[in-house]
User: What shape does this take?
Amino acid sequence: MKILVCVSKTPDTTAKISFTNDSTEFNASGVTFIMNPYDEWYALVRAVELVEKNGGTVTIINVGDASNDQTIRKGLAIGASDAVRINANPKSSLYIAKQIAEFAKAENYDIVFCGKESIDYNGSEVGAMVAEFLDLPFISFASKLDMNGNTASIERDIEGGVEMLEVQTPFVVSAAKGMAEQRIPNMMGIMKAKSKPFKVVEPVDFPDLSTPVKYHLPEEKGSVKLVDPDNMDELVRLLHEEAKVI
Assistant: This one.
């Protein structure tokens, strides 16, 4: 089994968010970055589990500059066989998906994994775009995946229940909570990661068609107002005049 896992670098969940260059770029100064949890905990770990059970290889791929190398090395320490970084500074999901798909076309992967979304932009776009470029089936928000030969049995949560699917390899899938359990790299994994293949390739020529115009932070939440339970008229007034629909 040959698996490709798409990983991205995101700010730590406790990072203070601000913007620079007239609010057109994220301010990375002083920010600690991590591997996107949906990519790491669910997509990558499940891919490693499948290879441990069935044999094969797990390649992790990232589209970014050299500042992503530490994040990629963590993926190797968790259990990936090798890694590829496409040397670019992407602005859009379309550009990222195109770069991943162009690399994957020649490699004939059985499964392409990605997290259901990144925790910084929450776009949930890359997986579907990669599948479109590769002309492969795409299953989103999968919470369980088991293999029987070339057939994958997949579950995903839907409103009011669980949907069960079957798909033949090759396919693209985005992983959600429940797909696997987080793995902490051990010392042996960290040492092995230093000698695992890690190549950097240049991007294919493709326009970054979507670029950020402006970022802004959400409005600060107002203070909590306590209403006497016997004063329903005041509660109704507040709901009519001051409450905001989100």
The first strand starts at residue 2 and ends at 6.
